[in-house]
Design brief:
By secondary structure, the protein is mainly beta. It contains five helices and 36 strands. 5% of the residues lie in helices and 39% in strands. The radius of gyration is 23 Å and the shape is globular. The structure holds CU-O-CU linkage. Residues 59, 61, 104, 106, 245, 464, 466, 521, 523, 525 line the site of CU-O-CU linkage (C2O).
């Protein structure tokens, strides 16, 4: 094993797309940011130098950070944010995991441009994948191009109803592609050179703030072999459905007749009438090179046939078809259950003054928030990171509000007859804001059912848990019904993920083992739900021994809170 070191200088640079000069915050001048490539078991040290005007942290999405919650990178939960002109070093190991993960800024919206891929290769001598060794490995990072001047400062509330805030293009590896042009200038697209007969491993990441994507390559199939750095049984498909936060590894064999083929990433959008937004796909080209008799690069590339952009059933099937590969790294699903949570995901309203608003209140008095069990997460301004306070004495954070096992009352579930049809403001449940948390005994086996509600009739929810992987036991449409649906659970080979897609108007059931002491974010990876409070803290208590307890923090974590305008605790 080795220590892999990187320096990430976060700064603002100008990028020109669609004839518009835009100031974007990026790492080392690149979009996407630098890839981190390591071998399982390596230690990683990343020195973050903040030359941007924003307070920020970097989160290592999907890295389990076992007994190392301190490096998880969530502001005021695990650390103080890195202020402009400050430096901060993250140190963590990547052991017991292999595959594709990623890293991103963990402050609202900034991750649209502050992100990159994190690749963990198996340790054994020559690479030992549970599939034929690919000729080449290719990151495919899907993103969105926003031309907002100050993406780091987007107002968290309501703004996503404003059409101007919609992204302007989709991207593959930072390139917009030839579907976009202005004043006669065609945007450059991503180009992948392949050799006939060779196999490529695509490491696909959805780093977008907003959209689920469908990915297709004309004339080619994918063999999906992993998701979220866990191997899956090889699954052959002509389409990949990927939600924000997810990663999939897929083999592509260059077995078509040598030529040029479009690779298209298209947002999978919620149905009308909510979304009249433009369809903004991006395309790159798969180009056969090294072809005997010369390549035919003059040919018009072949286009894949894309589904309707409102078709969410293909995504439902794609996710439902994945099973875990039998592999020494994968633990069996525990059969015991210690805790059950039923979490409804919704939108709600609070009054600007802070109390809850009645239905029908004047819309300018109402702030739209995103909720779990009808409570929207909001952390008061605190004097030091919660993890630090918790480490000193768990009772220091007794004031957090307990996430209830079940919603306060059964309301607006996805019974189609209950879907309100009035103006948006009238569909919103009055709700409240709180610092929402749930404590788990070390080693507890926890079942969670996530239920989308009719408040989210138009949206799916990619739910992400820090510090743990979750077994995906089952998904369904409509309302979850325990009597009926428990029988559908896959307890044999459920896939393991860090980000699970809760289908629009449906539910998903997961199981995880709370075996990593610390305070972990659990949230929707759809940026606007995240910014609007669809978050809870999962607190895993210490176990009985040193290797089941949170160790002391790295020395540089201890600094005194010195801000007067904060809640002392
Ligand atoms: Cu990828 Cu809490 O995030």
């Amino acid at each position: 094993t080795a220590v892999v070191e990187h320096t990430f200088v976060v700064s603002q640079v100008n990028m020109v797309h669609l004839c518009k000069d835009t100031l974007v915050t990026v790492v080392n001048g690149q979009l996407p940011g630098p890839a981190i490539e390591v071998t399982e078991g390596d230690s990683v040290a990343v020195h973050v130098v903040n030359k941007s005007p924003y307070n920020l942290t970097i989160h290592w999405h999907g890295v389990k950070q076992r007994l190392n919650c301190w490096a998880d990178g969530v502001p005021m939960i695990t650390q103080r944010p890195v202020l402009p002109n400050q430096k901060f070093t993250y140190r963590f190991d990547v052991s017991g995991q292999e595959g594709t993960l990623w890293w991103h800024a963990h402050v609202p919206c900034l991750r649209a441009t502050v992100h990159g891929i994190l690749i963990i290769r198996p340790r054994h001598g020559a690479i030992s994948y549970p599939f034929p060794k690919p000729h080449q490995e290719i990151p495919i990072i899907i993103g969105e191009w926003w031309d907002l001047k100050d993406l780091g400062q987007v107002d968290r509330h309501l703004r996503y109803y404003v059409a101007d805030d919609y992204f302007k293009a989709s991207t593959i590896n930072g390139k917009l592609g030839d579907l976009y042009n202005c004043s006669g200038v065609v945007e450059e697209g991503y180009k992948l050179d392949v050799e006939p007969g060779k196999t490529y491993l695509l490491r696909v990441l959805n780093a977008a703030l907003f959209s689920e994507y469908y990915l297709k390559i004309a004339g080619h199939k994918f063999i999906v072999v992993a998701g979220d750095a866990n191997y899956v049984s090889p699954y052959t498909t002509d389409i990949i459905a990927i939600a924000p936060g997810q990663t999939f590894d897929a083999l592509v064999v260059a077995d078509a007749s040598p030529g040029r083929y479009y690779m298209v990433a298209m947002p999978n959008q919620p149905p009308k009438p909510d979304y009249q937004s433009p369809v903004l796909p991006t395309r790159g080209i798969l180009h056969y090179s090294n072809v005997a008799g010369g390549s035919r690069s003059g040919d018009v590339p072949m286009s894949p046939e894309m589904p309707d952009n409102h078709n969410d059933m293909l995504s439902f099937y794609f996710h439902g078809n994945l099973t875990s590969l039998h592999h020494p790294r994968h633990l069996p699903v525990p059969k015991r259950i210690d805790e059950r949570l039923f979490i409804t995901l919704g939108l709600g309203s609070v009054c600007r003054q802070g109390q809850s608003c009645e239905r029908g209140a004047e819309s300018d008095e109402v702030i739209v928030v995103a909720t779990m069990n009808n409570i929207s997460y909001e952390l008061p301004t605190v004097s030091r990171p919660l993890l630090e306070a918790h480490y000193q004495n768990p009772s220091n954070i007794d004031w957090l509000q307990e996430l209830p096992d079940v919603p306060p009352r059964v309301f607006n579930f996805t019974d189609n007859s209950l879907i309100p049809t009035g103006p948006k403001e009238e569909q919103l449940e009055p709700t409240s804001k709180a610092a929402l948390a749930r404590r788990f005994r070390y080693g507890a086996v926890v079942d969670v059912v996530f239920q989308s509600t009719s408040m989210l009739q138009s949206e799916s929810n990619p739910m992400h848990l820090h510090g743990h992987d979750m077994f995906v036991l089952a998904q369904g449409s409509g309302n979850y019904d325990m009597q009926r649906d428990v029988a559908k659970y896959n307890l044999v080979n459920p896939p393991l993920v860090n980000t699970v897609l809760v289908p629009r108007l449906g539910w998903v059931a997961v199981r995880f083992i709370a075996d990593n002491p610390g305070i972990w974010y659990m949230h929707c990876h759809y940026e606007f739900h995240l910014s609007m409070g669809m978050i809870a803290l999962f607190i895993v208590e210490d176990g009985p021994t040193a290797n089941t307890s949170l160790p002391s923090p790295p020395v540089d974590f201890w600094t005194d809170g010195n801000d007067n305008n904060v809640m002392a605790y």
